[in-house]
Amino acid sequence: MEKDNLSVVVHAKGDLRLEQRPIPEPGPNEVLIQMHSVGICGSDVHYWQNGRIGDFVLKKPMVLGHEAAGRIVKVGSSVKDLKPGDRVAIEPGVPREMDEFFKSGRYNLSPTIFFCATPPDDGNLCRYYKHSANFCYKLPDNVTFEEGALIEPLSVGIHACRRAGVSLGSSVLICGSGPIGLVCLLVAKAMGASQVVITDLSSERLAMAKELGADFPLTVTKDDGPQALAKTVEDTLGYQPHITIECTGVESSIQTAIYATRSGGVLVLVGLGSEMATVPLINAAVREVDIRGVFRYCNTWPMAIAMLASGKVNVKPLVTHRFPLEQAVQAFETTRQGQGVKVMLKCDQSDQKP
Questions:
Q1: Taking a C-beta distance cutoff of 8 angstroms, is the pair 217, 209 a contact?
Q2: Rounded distance, CA 169 to CA 25, Å?
Q3: Alpha-carbon distance 72 to 89, whole Å?
Q4: At residue 300, what are phi and psi to the nearest 5 degrees?
């Protein structure tokens, strides 16, 4: 095996570097993966630009990246179900202990969970990375590495739609058509949503949403009042949507989401904005609109793989830019500027294909 383990490391706010790290040795229940495709997430850019997200503060250099797939090159002594050569998608959140959240199947809420590229845990934007074998999932032959990497954002959509209760015939409003809004759209449609309205400031992103199956792409402006925008949604559909999935985290958009959701409906908050927000909570309360939060995802990789393998969900159009790992800084700058939808870094020098 080559000794090259080029890694993308954020050292401090605004300080992003490419540097060599040692190739790790897998423990008994771990596998060593030659990374192939790693997507850049908004959170990766946020750590680079701000050095923190909420209570997660960068205190030492950290390898970025958590949307990832690659090929196993070595397995630990206790690993039974995976072998060298297996192509795998990586679930980045691994519980460290069998606490009450783990036992109840909601391990994403465990306060001690390991999570790639969340301080102090290193991510997998590198040539070689080790991970818990239990959180690596074999990819079928007809699912590409890039699709495997996109299972991570797709999982956010699956978890959000499950929390929302999307089912056959649901009408859905999605606020924001960035990468997460678009995967929520894909999943909502796959789960049987009959009509989906999706909003954004960007006409380019709404054009992508239309391509991916949105029934009503709706351009909004910063001057639109929340109640007026909610009325526009109602006029567009002919009624208020059963479910709203808010993917921006912007205060005015959360307000719109509450006003827009029909009485007895469900609002799921996916986007993360300021810790405090002024919202019309009593409006939601007296209309029995349930407001539900989501934190990442849990138990989603098998469903996501089945969706991709069956062709029910197509995430390929989301990848608009590709860069070799050596050009990671340029790739991050492209993401920061909001170009395209999903920027993918190719970590294997000998295989730059999707």
A1: yes
A2: 49
A3: 10
A4: -115, -25
**Tokens describing residue 75:** 């397995």
Q: Which region, left, alpha or beta, applies to residue 340 given φ > 0 means left and ψ of -120 to 50 means alpha? A: left
Q: What are the pLDDT digits (tens) for 166-195?
A: 999 999 999 999 999 999 999 999 999 999
Of all helices (H) and strands (E), which one includes residue 33? strand 30-39
Buried b / exposed e over 170-207, threshold 16 CB at 10 Å, is bbbbbbbbbbbbbbbbbbbbbbebebbbbbbeeeebbe
Locate tokens 């929390």: which residue? 163
Q: What is the per-residue pLDDT across 72-95, written as a single tens digit (0 to 9) for each? A: 999 999 999 999 999 999 999 999
Task: Give the chain's domains with CATH numbers.
Answer: 6-138+315-346 (3.90.180.10), 154-293 (3.40.50.720)
Peptide bond into 120 cis (omega under 30): yes
Distance CA 293, CA 287 (A): 18
**Helical H runs in the chain?**
42-50, 100-103, 145-164, 179-190, 203-211, 226-237, 251-260, 281-286, 301-310, 328-336
Which letter does DSSP use for residue 203 in this model?
H
- 3-state secondary structure at position 268: strand
- Residue 253 contacts residue 246 (beta carbons within 8 Å): yes
Instruction: Tell me the per-residue pLDDT of 51-76, one tens digit each, with 9 for 90 and over.
Output: 999 889 999 999 999 999 999 999 99
Q: Measured between alpha carbons, how far apart are the two ends of the chain, in Å?
A: 23
pTM assigned to the model: 0.96
- Tokens matching residue 90: 């990586």
Reported confidence tier of residue 292, pLDDT bands at 50, 70, 90: very high
Q: What does the alpha-carbon distance between residue 13 and residue 221 come to, in Å, rounded to a whole number?
A: 31
Tokens 């009450």 — which residue? 100
Distance CA 48, CA 42 (A): 10
Residues 6+ apart with CB under 8 A from 302: 137
